[in-house]
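Continuing from the previous page of notes. For each protein in this section, the sequence appears first, followed by its structure tokens. Read the first protein now.
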Amino acid sequence: MKVLRFLYTSYGVLVFFLLFLIFFFLLLIPIFFSSTYKLTGIFNRWWARLLFFFIALPYKVVYESKLDGKKQYIFCPNHFSYIDIPSMGLNHHNTIFVGKSEINKVPVFGYMYSKLHITVDRTKLKSRYTTLVKTKEALDEGKSLVVFPEGGIVTEKEPVMGKFKDGPFRVSIEKQIPIVPVTIPYNWIILPPNEFLLNWKPMKVIFHRPIDPSKYTLDTIDEYKEYVRSVLQEELTRHLNK
């Protein structure tokens, strides 16, 4: 069984990087021409769809309500697996990511990621502050964001989420941009965080209703975090018990 999973994973990694080589040249357009930033989301969506097609991994994207294509959102998914990032590429909304700076160290891919997305070194106060500033600037430019509120894969017991960071909730309140909780219930089974071996299982991505930030202030940010967390955890638990 592990041999088959190893072969499947090796094939998946090969497909991922072959597609990356193709899309890298396309992504040079928004890298060098910042006004075309919306192409980042479009190309990410093509990349994700082709990736899951070629590795024969079926997926279902569910929207609890129709999102306004002209509005900005901050998408906050749970994060248990490395495959969560391409999963969020299936989003119909064009977005950029806020992610860990470790990705910058990956040859070529790290260059592309650092130029198109926002990275943060959470061990350094200055980096966290700079990321907060860049995040606000991105919102001022009209961009929508994907931010993993746990700050990375930090859980010790999937599918129970780790503690949420303040960042996405703070900018949501300050900029009055709605947060959309996103539940990805099965990725921790498809690609477990403690073993980089793929399992075949249909994927599901659930975009919940946007949350109005006007109901919260910086003094009630913990209530905001807890509400988003409860939406995600309830959905995770529901799928676990199916």
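Done with the first. The second protein uses the same format. Note its length before scrolling.
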Amino acid sequence: MDITLLVNLTSRAWSLKILALLDSGTPGRQAPLIAAARASRTSFASSLDHLVQLGLLEKNPGHGHPLRPEFRLTHTGKTAAAIASRILETLPDDDAFAIIRRSWAVPILAVTESPTRFSVIKSGLGTITDRALSQSLCVLEDRAWLKREIDVSQRSPFPTYHAVNAGRKINQAIGLSI
């Protein structure tokens, strides 16, 4: 999975959860998915539509049995669903999932495998604003998923960030090669 797809995927709160549920065998119908995700119908429907637009899910064509899945994973969706499952398996609790639902948390962890400067993270993520990046870095640092170190070996010291603890596990679950 490339970073652009990861950024687009995580821009909706329930996208990772939907993909992980489909990967685990939850039927591809709205009612069982909503019940398993414990999401509101509006945000859930928005995430489903977003996944269809990204080409990760498709509506099941044709008519058939009432238990026939409404949605199924595409070829690309199966790969993304496996990654989503690995990410959610690394989370220690529901509070951690609330952080993952933030739109920039997963992409930031994906690009901080090694110590990385603020400007490099920003350029790697493309459309992120300075404020959104700064706030996300603070949240991840407070949770101890990201470590901030000051490099004083240069004339002007600068901070670097890298994934640690659960953040490192999420980084490894994504497996980006950037």
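What the second structure shows: The chain has a mean pLDDT of 86. The chain has ten helices and five strands. We return to this in next week's lecture.
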